[in-house]
Structure formats: structure tokens, C-alpha cells
Design brief:
This protein has 644 residues and is α/β, with parallel strands linked by helices. It has two domains: 2-129 and 203-338, 3-Layer(aba) Sandwich (Rossmann fold); 372-528 and 554-582 and 635-642, Rossmann fold, CATH 3.40.50. Helices cover 46% and strands 17% of the residues. It contains 27 helices and 16 strands. Helix 1 (38-44) packs across helix 12, helix 23 packs across helix 25 (558-568) and helix 26 (585-605) packs antiparallel against helix 27. It is elongated and about 85 Å long. The structure holds S-adenosylmethionine (SAM).
């Protein structure tokens, strides 16, 4: 049965009901449509009153000239629940649909609701620059602010809008998605005006629902795809926050993408059916929660306003025990635990970030790669790049520094050349100052920690970050070939992943040696590009690409050359420690892709590699990542010497 509601800002929204009984309302995602939920609604029609609707400006609902915000969409949902006379509705949200539900709970509380289903949505999509990797993983943050704005501009621009939508949708399915699914989803997405789509995405992505999720006390089912663009670590966090929530992760070979309900409707519908069949309860929480503003029920609102303060209600919600229904969810979860544990890459494990738990994994490999597709990260480290590239290089340096494998390199470097409080250290090519910040702390106020970098934008950002640090360090623009310090100034001079980019690495090591005091140390780390191996099927293409990637930096062999170089400039006690970096899983693939995509795209433009070859290359590696077979190994060297 089809019906319409008119919102109070005069937008006509279309909904369809299947079956009778308890209302189960499906809320589609950004650029989605009611049609995406139709198979699930029809499958459940014999057991409940399944309702699908098109949100404003989507599907067959009317366009709206305003109201492209999550809270307005939540208000629309409230109108729909009112029309349905719902008192015990189940809300099933997909992607942005989950945000609409969280906003609904914030505005209206759970009075009309009985249970909730959240499919593949992160609580906070934009990362805060101060967040560490774990916080980013829990929030499921996929964008920096700048990346989000770039994406929105590209969506709103009629020239690039359609291509952007197509690229986004392509990243929402697994490679084994049924034929035609992508085109159907693209058709739903292109129905929405580009500038409205951008406005809504901006508003949607800027929400942070973590606090609101922490207040939920209704039975909840949280579903995510391991291969989704939304980091599945966020679903884990959500399920942990909601007492008794049931967590289900679809693996890549189970259609575990952002569109998992469409890729694997059989499993999804069965899951939903089982969850809906759990015991029905009203919790104290639920009954008390009518204190939320509800424009459709002013009497209720007045009553609650006098009976309880928001602060007390919040505290009571926090303390409410899990409901029996929620405990039912926990039992169901336990039943599935064995299966989950076989594939669980929980963040609590030490090697977690080596695998596909990296919070930005899919996004980095997808949308950000799209925005930097023809830019090479390596280029950004050789010149002072235009601002659009600076963002990508910043994001890369942040991501790499937080990686446990990088921290392991740092640990081994400081074992080779320990420093003490009061020492004077110089970091050449310090980038954003990640290492210098740590060194500053170690040398303390009596010591001196200086970082120089040729890129003024790097130094400006390093200074900005250092401004509030307890041990801020000193950051200067400078050239490694010509250090602006008198000789014998420092106890240690180090450089990490910089020599490969220099016009004359030997001149730089000579300079580093000059500014170190006799007995002081010179320390360097760099990769040998020629020693990067990838488990790819086409060996001859892999060899040609190795040449392409070698040519991306002026000194691809610097890893093996540093020993000779240190000896040539007269350093004593030269020690060499090889260090391998093993990248696996979706996160490893995302890292590999982010580093190399721009270089390979350039090679295609230059005619060194044909477009079909590039497509085959990326397709093969992506398939390996989706089936957990991706492997890339990079060989680097730590080299240390002493000034005689
Ligand atoms: C890959 S980044 C490494 C940054 C930092 N060492 C780290 O580990 O995070 C390379 C850095 O070298 C800097 N660089 C390139 N050429 C340089 C030069 N001639 N003198 C000083 N720094 C330079 C780049 O601006 C960039 O910040």
C-alpha cells in the first residue's frame, strides 16, 4: 500500500507498506532510495508491517529546496512514525539512515521505538587532527575536513558530479556483486541533485554521534561489511557501547561491502528476521525517554518537562541495565562468536593495524586515492607542492607515523643511537615533526631539538602542532644540502625517508656530519625502492611497474647505498640494520595504493603502461586484498655512524 506524508515545510514524501503488525521502518542512506529496501521489506511482509520510504529529494519523493540536514531528515522520519501511529516501531537504518535514526533519538527519544538495526555507518566520519589511530578506528572516521570538502565540491560541480558519484558507488560493492547492482545504485544516486547531495553529505559527515550512541538502551543489531568503505572497527565500537547489542560482520566473500544487504539479501534478511523474533520488552529507559522534544505530542512533552530534568534522565539512561531482549541479543551473539573469532582482527591484538583494521583503509584506497589519482605522493616530498597536494602528504605522514611498523623502525633507530636529557638533536627533513616532538620530550628543557624541512608548508604545520606542546622543539625551513648551523652543534643528526628525495644525498650526509660534534652520531633510515616485492600474478608487468616506481624518486637505491655513503664522508663505526615492512590485508593494500597510485597513473598518462594494464594490476591486487591474500614487502635500512 502506497501513501504520502506532507512535511511541515511542504515536501511530499512517498512511502510503501508491506504486510501488517508491528511497524518495521527502513531508512535508506545518502543518495539511496526506498527501492534498496524493497527485497527486505517484501521478505518480512508476512511477519510485520514493513515500511519503506524515500527521503526528501531521493527516489520518488519530492525535491526540497532546503532541509538537506540530518536533523531535518530525522524530523521527516518523526512525521512518518506519527502517520503510522507507531508506538513500538523497529527502525532499520543503512549508512546515513543510521545517522538519521541517531538524530531522531536525540530529538524525540525512543518513546515510539522498540528496537534498532544499524547497517554500516560510522559514528563520526571526519577525523579530528588530534585523534590517535585507535580513536579514529572507533569513530570510523574516513575523511579529513579538507578531503570531505574536496569531495563535496567535486559532487556539486556539474562537470565532475556524475563521475564522482560513479567512483563512490564503485567503492561501495565487492567485486563479486551481482551484475547490474552498481548501475541500479548509480541510478538512485544520480536522481539526487549534485549540489543538494554535496550539502547533505557535508552535514551528515560533520556529525559526531558517539555520545548519543552511548545513551542507547534499546535492543540493537549492528551489521557491517569487512570490505566496506566504512571501517568495520566502528561497528565493533557501536556494538560495545550499546548494552547487549548484537554485532554481525559480513566477510568479503559474503558480500561484506557497504551494500551488504543488497549483495547478500539471504543472510541479511535471515539475520533481521531472527533479531525481530527476539523477546519484546519495554524498558524503564524507554518509558522515561518521552522527555525528549516531540513536536507531534505536546502534551507528553509538557508532562515530562515538569517531571524530570534532562540531566537526571541522562544519568538514568546511562545506568539502565540491559533489557531481556538485549540479553537475547547477547545470546545470539555468543552463538556466532566462534565464527566471528575465526576472522576477527580486533584492535586489541598487537598486530591489528598490520591487517585490515586500519580505520581509513577502504576510504584511503578509494575516495582519497581518487582525489590524488594523478598526483604522486613522492612528488609532494620533492617540491613545495600546491596546497591541494599538501593535504594528501600531511594525511600520508600522519597515517604512516601512527603505524606500528613505523614505530618499530623508530624504536630500533633510537636503540642504535640513544639520546639523553640535555642532548642536542637535529632532524633533517622533519616533515610535520612527528619524531621531533618525541625527541624534544626526551632531551627535555636542558637539551635542544631542531627540525628543518625544505617545505615551508610542512614547517608551518609542524609549528602549529607544536604550539601547545609541553616540549615544543624548534622548526625551521632549511635545505639538507646546506645546513644553516655551525659545525659541531649537535650530539645527533638524523634523517628518515628523506635521502631518497634529494638531488645529492652525499652532500646532505656530509652536512649532517659537519654539524655533529666529534663523537656524535649521524643516523638515517631509508627504503630501497628496488627491493619492494608484491605478490602479483603478472610477473612481467610487475617488473615493468617496479621500474616505474623506481623512477618516482631520484635515489631509488639509496637503501643499499647509504653504507658506502657514510663510509665515504669519513664516519666511523658504521652499522647497518636491515628492516622489512610487511603490508597485508585491506589496510596494507590501501597503504600500497595510496603511495603508488599517483605514480602509476602518471605512467599511464606518459604511455609507459597501458590503461588496461593498470586496470588489471589494480584489479588483481584489490581482489587479493578482498580475499585477504595481499602481500607487499619493502626493504629498508637503518644506518648509523660516529663522527671521529
Ligand atoms: C617522506 S617525508 C619524511 C618526513 C619525516 N622525516 C617523517 O619521517 O615523517 C620527506 C620529507 O623530506 C623533505 N625534504 C625534501 N627535500 C628536502 C631538502 N632538500 N631539505 C630538507 N627537507 C627536504 C620533504 O619536504 C618531506 O617533509
Amino acid at each position: 500500500m502506497e501513501g504520502f506524508i506532507h512535511t511541515d515545510d511542504d515536501v511530499r514524501l512517498r512511502y510503501t507498506e508491506h504486510g501488517s503488525g508491528r511497524p518495521v521502518v527502513f531508512v535508506h542512506g545518502w543518495l539511496g532510495a526506498a527501492d534498496q529496501w524493497r527485497p527486505a521489506a517484501q521478505a518480512l511482509a508476512g511477519e510485520c508491517r514493513a515500511v519503506v520510504y524515500d527521503q526528501r529529494g531521493h527516489g520518488r519523493s519530492e525535491d526540497a529546496r532546503s532541509g538537506w540536514t540530518i536533523h531535518r531528515l530525522a524530523d521527516d522520519l518523526a512525521h512518518l512514525l506519527e502517520r503510522l501511529g507507531a508506538t513500538d516501531a523497529v527502525l532499520v537504518g543503512h549508512s546515513m539512515g543510521c545517522s538519521v535514526i541517531w538524530a531522531y533519538l536525540e530529538l524525540f527519544g525512543p518513546a515510539r521505538l522498540e528496537r534498532l538495526v544499524f547497517v554500516d555507518q560510522a559514528p563520526a566520519m571526519v577525523s579530528d587532527p588530534v585523534w590517535d589511530e585507535r580513536t579514529i578506528a572507533h569513530a570510523g572516521a574516513m575523511f579529513t575536513d579538507a578531503e570531505l570538502h574536496r569531495l563535496c565540491h567535486s559532487l556539486a560541480d556539474p562537470e565532475s558530479g556524475e563521475d564522482t558519484v560513479r567512483a563512490i558507488v564503485a567503492g561501495m560493492v565487492t567485486r563479486s556483486a551481482p551484475p547490474g547492482l552498481t548501475e541500479r545504485v548509480i541510478a538512485w544516486a544520480l536522481r539526487v541533485d549534485g549540489s543538494y547531495a554535496a550539502e547533505l553529505l557535508r552535514n551528515h559527515a560533520h556529525q559526531d554521534w558517539r555520545r548519543q550512541i552511548g545513551l542507547i538502551r534499546l535492543p540493537a543489531l549492528v551489521v557491517a561489511g569487512r570490505a566496506s568503505v566504512v571501517p568495520w572497527t566502528a561497528a565493533e565500537w557501536i556494538a560495545r557501547e550499546i548494552p547487549g547489542a548484537q554485532l554481525e560482520i559480513f566477510e568479503p566473500d559474503e558480500g561484506g561491502s557497504q551494500l551488504l544487504a543488497l549483495e547478500n539479501p539471504a543472510r541479511f534478511n535471515e539475520l533481521l528476521r531472527e533479531f525481530l523474533a527476539g523477546p519484546v520488552t519495554r524498558t524503564q529507559d524507554r518509558l522515561s525517554a518521552s522527555s525528549h522534544r516531540h513536536p507531534l505530542n505536546a502534551k507528553e512533552q509538557r508532562h515530562e518537562t515538569h517531571s524530570d530534568s534532562p540531566a537526571t534522565q541522562g544519568a538514568r539512561r546511562k545506568q539502565a541495565p540491559p533489557t531481556p531482549a538485549a540479553r537475547g541479543g547477547a545470546v545470539a551473539r555468543t552463538r556466532r562468536l566462534a565464527r566471528r573469532q575465526r576472522t576477527d582482527h580486533s584492535l586489541s591484538g598487537s598486530g591489528a593495524l598490520d591487517r585490515d583494521s586500519g580505520p581509513m583503509a577502504a576510504f584511503r584506497g578509494g575516495v582519497i586515492a581518487m582525489s590524488t589519482a594523478t598526483q604522486s605522493l613522492h612528488e609532494g616530498f620533492q617540491n613545495s607542492p600546491p596546497s591541494v597536494e599538501v593535504e594528501a602528504t600531511f594525511a600520508w605522514l600522519d597515517r604512516i607515523d601512527a603505524h606500528p611498523l613505523t614505530q618499530e623502525i623508530k624504536r630500533r633507530m633510537s636503540e642504535l643511537c640513544p639520546i639523553d636529557a640535555g642532548d642536542r638533536v637535529l632532524d633533517v627533513g622533519c616533515g610535520l615533526g612527528h619524531e621531533l616532538a618525541r625527541l624534544s620530550e626526551r632531551v627535555g628543557r636542558r637539551g635542544r631539538a631542531v627540525g628543518i624541512d625544505a617545505n615551508p608548508a610542512m614547517i608551518a604545520e609542524a609549528r602549529r602542532r607544536a604550539a601547545e606542546a609541553w616540549f615544543p622543539g624548534q622548526y625551521e625551513v632549511g635545505d639538507a644540502h646546506n645546513l644553516d648551523f655551525p659545525e659541531d652543534t649537535f650530539d645527533l643528526c638524523l634523517t628518515e625517508r628523506v635521502l631518497r628525495y634529494l638531488r645529492d644525498p652525499e652532500a646532505a650526509v656530509r652536512e649532517m656530519t659537519r654539524v655533529v660534534r666529534p663523537g656524535g652520531s649521524v643516523l638515517a633510515f631509508d627504503f630501497d625502492s628496488d627491493q619492494t616485492i608484491v605478490d602479483a600474478t603478472d610477473q612481467s608487468l610487475a617488473r615493468r611497474l617496479a621500474d616505474v616506481l623506481d623512477a618516482a624518486v631520484p635515489n631509488p637505491w639509496i637503501g643499499r647505498q647509504m653504507y658506502g655513503l657514510f663510509r665515504r664522508v669519513g664516519l666511523a663505526d658504521v652499522r647497518v640494520v636491515p628492516h622489512t615492512v610487511v603490508l597485508t590485508g585491506a589496510d596494507g593494500f590501501a597503504t600500497y595504493r595510496q603511495l603508488n597510485q599517483g605514480t602509476i597513473a602518471r605512467a599511464v598518462q606518459d604511455g609507459q603502461i597501458s590503461p588496461p594494464e593498470a586496470k588489471t594490476w589494480w584489479g588483481g591486487l584489490e581482489q587479493a586484498a578482498n580475499t585477504d591474500r595481499f602481500l607487499s614487502v619493502n626493504l629498508g635500512f637503518i644506518v648509523a655512524g660516529r663522527k671521529a
